[in-house]
Queue: 2 jobs
Job 1
Amino acid sequence: MAYKVVVLAGDGVGPEVMREGIKVLKAVEEAFGVEFDLVPYPCGGKHYLEAGEEWPDGAFESCKTSDAILLGAIGYPGATLPSGDLAGAGVVFGLRFGLDLYANVRPTKLYPGVKHKIHEGLKQVWDPEKVDFVIVRENTEGIYAPIRGILRRGGFEELAVDNKVTTRKGVERIIRFAFELSKRREGAPLDGRKRVTCVDKSNVLDGCRLFRRVFDELAEEYPEVERDYAYIDAFMQWMMRGPEAYDVVVTSNLFGDIATDLAAVLQGGMGLAASGNIGDNHGMFEPIHGSAPKYEGQDKANPMGTVLAIQMMLEWLGERKGDGSLVGASLAVEDAVKSVLKEGKRITYDLGGKAKCSQVGDALAEGVKGAAGSRG
Ligand code: IPM
Ligand code: MG
C-alpha cells in the first residue's frame, strides 16, 4: 500500500529544496520497498499573485486524507493579502490550526564536521556531541491565536491588539508531548539525564503562570524525567552558553518561534534546521528556513533542512503505522546526511562549500541507497 504524501513546495527556494527531498524519497522507495503516492499542489505568495488564491480548492481536504504533508517554504515579495497578512501564511496556519497540529517539534543537533555559525576565526566552542536537544513549541494558541485587530479611525490606525491565549487543554497536551519525548530520548549530553525545561515568562504573564502550574502537575507523572525552568530571556543566553544541559525544552508559540531560529545557529544554521508539526491525527513536516526569494532558481539553497524534515516524517509515520521499513529508512536518511556532512565535499555555500542544491540531493539519495544495506 502506498502512503499518500501531499507535497506543498511553495515559494522561492521551496520548489528547489523540495525537488531534492523528493529525490531522497524516491531513493527510499527503491531501497526500502515502500511506496509513496505524492500529491502536489501549488501554493504560496507567488501562486496568490498568479491565481488569486493561496492554494487551490480541495488542497486542504486532500491534506486531511493524507498520511503526511510536506511543505517547502512560503512567502513572496509583494504578495500580501488585503488583510495585510503574508500571502501563503494561510497555508501554514490553515494546516497548523485546521488539522490541530499542536506540537511543533524542532530538533537542534550538531552533526560532526559542521561548522556552526559563530565561531569563524575563533576556536570552535561546541563539540558535536554537546548539542542535541529538541524544542517543542506549542503550535495552536499563544499569541498566534487569530484573535487580534486594528482600530482605524479617521483613516489612522489608532490601536492594535494581539491576544495571547492559553488554555489548560492546549498546555496539557504540549507538556505531555514534551515529557513523552524525553522518555524516549537518551537524556542531555551533559549528564545523560532526561530533562524537560519549561521556558516561559511566568515572572510577568498569567498565561505563563498557568503553563508552569500545569507543567508541575504533569511532571509528577514522570518521576524519571528531571524538571527544569527558565525564563525565556535568560534561556536565550543559557542555550548559547551551555547547550549540553538541554534535552527537551517546552515553550509557548512565539517564544518557540524565536528560540528555534537562534537554536539553529548551534547546529550550523537554518539550512540544516527541520521541523515537524504534529497532532494526534496528522503531521506536516517542513524546513524552518524561509523562501529566500533572492536565491530562487539558482540551485543554491541547502536542501538538508527539507531532507531532515523528511527524516522526521519517515520516523513519525513509521511509528504511527507500525512500519519498520519506514523507521529504518529514517535512520538511513539521517546516516546519509551525517556522512555527506562529514565528508565535507558536497555541501552548499552556507556550510562553506561550493556544491549546488541538486548535487547535495544526489549525494544524499546515493547515501540512502548505500545505507539501506545496513538499515533495511
Ligand atoms: C516558522 C515561521 C512561521 C511562524 C511564519 C512563516 C508564519 O517563522 O515556522 O517558524 O511564525 O511560525
Ligand atoms: Mg519562525
Job 2
Amino acid sequence: MSITDDTVSLSSSQTDTQSAPIAASFPPDFLWGAATSAYQVEGAVHEDGRGPSTWDRFAATPGATYEGQTGEIAADHYHRMEEDVALMSQLNLNAYRFSIAWPRILPQGTGTVNERGLDFYDRLVDALLAHGIRPVPTLYHWDLPLALQDRGGWVNRDTAYAFADYAEIVTKRLGDRVDWWLTHNEPWCTSYLSYALGIHAPGLRDQQLAIVVGHHVLLSHGLAVPRMRAHLSPEAQVGIAIDFYPAYAADDRPETLLAVQRADTFRNRWFMDPVFRGKYPETLFNDLGVNPPPIHDGDLAIISTPIDFLGVNYYSRMVVQNRTNGASQAEQPVHADTEIYEALAHIPGSSYTEMGWEIFPDGLANILMRIHRDYAPKAIAITESGAAFNDHLDGNDSVHDPQRVDYLKAHIQAISEVIRQGAPVKGYFVWSLMDNFEWAEGYRKRFGLVYIDYPTQRRIIKDSGHWYAKFIRQQRES
Ligand code: FCB
C-alpha cells in the first residue's frame, strides 16, 4: 500500500456484505478463536493473593470510567472458568486468546511469586486442552501491578526488566503445554492512550512520557522473547499483538497526503519498524514534536529479536486530512489523536458500531497485504476483530445481532482473500468471547459472541455465536 494508493473517493461503494455467503475455505489447522483479557473478564480482584493493578486504581478515580464502573466483578470468569471453557467448546473454538494478570503472579510486580495465581492459569490451560482448544496467552494486557506504577510504571526502564522476569516465570510454568504466546497487547494503547491521551490507566497526558513508555514496552518485549524461548519447544510461536488503523486520504491535496503519511507513521509504523527493522520511523518524533526516547546501545537489536508471528488487532480505518483551524476542508466533523492530522468522524454511506468505529472490512485486507509486503512476518494471526452493538436479551432467551454476523462474515471473507494472495494468516480471534468491561466505556459496550446478563452473570450465546460455531463446524467438515 503506497500512500497514494490510499486515496479513496468518499462516495465509493464499499464491500456489500449483507448476507453474502462466505466462499472461503481455510487450512484445516487454521485457528478459529475468540479473545478476552484478564481485567475485562476475571473479576475476583482481591482473591487468592492478587495484588492491585493500575486499572483498579484508575477505575476507582472519579470520572475515569462510564458511571464509575470497574472490573471488580466483571464477567466473574475467575469463578466460572470451567463453564466458560465449556461454552468455548460449544462454539467449536479450537483456540482461545486470554491474558495473564501480572498482579496475580507477582503481587508486587517483582519478587515473591504467588503460586495461587499461577494455579489459576494452570487450571485454565488444562481445561482448554481437555476440550481440544489451543491456549494463546498474552502476558500483558494493561493491568500493571500498582507497585510498579508507583515506581514510574513504564516510564521507568526497570519495568522492562521486571516484565522479562515475569514472562520467564509464566512460561516456565505453562510452557510445557502452551505453544502460542504473545508478549504485549497493543503497545500504542499502553503508551499513547494511557500516557498521552489519559483515557486509560494511569491516565497521564504527556506525549513525551508516551514515547518513553513505548520504548520501554518494546524493550521489555525484546528482553522477554529469549527468556520465554528457554522454556518452550522449538516449534513454539512467540509474537506480539499490535493494533492497526490503516490511513486513507480524505482528498488528493498534497497536504492531505502528507497528513496520511504522518497518521500512518504514528498509528501503524511506530511499533512495527523497531520490531521488524530495528529502527524507529525517521519522522515519528519530529512529527509529534517530541524528543526521541532514551535509547541505550543495543536496545534496538534486542527489540528486533526475530519473532515467530505477528498478532494483528484490527477494528477500523481512519480517513485523514491535514489539520485545519476552524472549519474542516471536507465539511465533516473531525476528531484527532494528536495535532498531526484530523480524521473524519463520519464517512457518508458508511455504517458504524456502537463504539463509533466505521465498519470497513477492506481495511483489514489492505493492512494485512501491506504488512505481508513491507514487513514479511513469518506468520500472522488476527488477534482481535469484532464490534460492539446494542444487544438485547429478548423474552425467548435469545440475542439477535445480525449486524455482528455480517461483520464477522465480511472480515472473514477479507482474510480468505489475502490468504489467496499469499499472506501467511494462521488464525482469527473474535473480540470478544463474551461481553465484558470495556475499559473507560464500562459495561455499556457489548462485544461478545456470548451475552452476559450482569445481574445474574448468566451466559447466553448470541446469534453471532451460533453462526460462528456453525461456520467453524462447516470449515472442519469441508
Ligand atoms: C482493543 C483492546 C481490547 C478491547 C477492544 C475493543 O483495543 O485490546 O481489550 O478493549 O479494543
